[in-house]
Amino acid sequence: MQCARALSAVGLVLANCLAPEAMAQWTLVREDDFRSAPALDPAFWAVETGFHRNREDQYYAAANVTAGQGFLRLEARREAVPNAAWRAGSRDWRRAQPASRYTSGSIHTKQAFLYGRFEVVARSPAGAGTWPAIWLLHESAGVYGEIDIFEAVGKHPDTVFAGVHYGREPKTRQHASGNVTVPGLYTGWRTHAVEWTPQRIKVTVDGTTVLEFDPSQAASAGVDPLRQPMRLRINLALGGSWGGAIDDSRLPARFDIASVRIWRWDGDATAPAVRWGR
User: Fold this and answer.
1) Catalytic annotation on 48?
2) pTM of the model as a whole
């Protein structure tokens, strides 16, 4: 069963209702509706700055994260900025560059969550080199767990990717992924969601399943990386290890977020106890 919600401010009609039998397991605990929010809530969200991962070309900056016109915008631009972390002679690529030719926006929750339903209504950019992403991440000593709710790269038009990554060390991490073709992906708003419990990770776009994965498959040798608290992250990357060559003529590129909703998973009688919001 599906229900429709009208988001008149951005001219949307979105299916984001759960079936009655599923509703009993979920409690809505957070809603950011950027139709009316004047700014990003700094008590809940953090804005990322600097170079961070995947040898991406963009330098994340607070100025590239703005709210207004009925959505939150992460904007990637061709512009030169100094690298505040630069250290002459550093072997760390994040510090070795004195400046960047590109900037973009990235945010993440300050709070980590263990299980839940996460839903983001977004409008994605097109163009070679663009790499928008919505994902959950756990990082600690010897344990890495990642759930990719949505990724797209401009070199694969109209394709939505989802995946999981897990393990101890970068060189030995394992992966599982799925993808679906969404004609006209870049022309409208899409609902990206994951339902994450101890027994299942299910990722969807507009209600269509992209990936299902059993978290127990990632557990080994006392490590259970996909059953750890994770923070929600939303970012627009450029280039890097997967994004590839950047088409400057398509910049600025914009990743717009209409809403973010988070439901707590209330579990069932046979499931492990839930540690929520650590």
Assistant:
1) no
2) 0.89
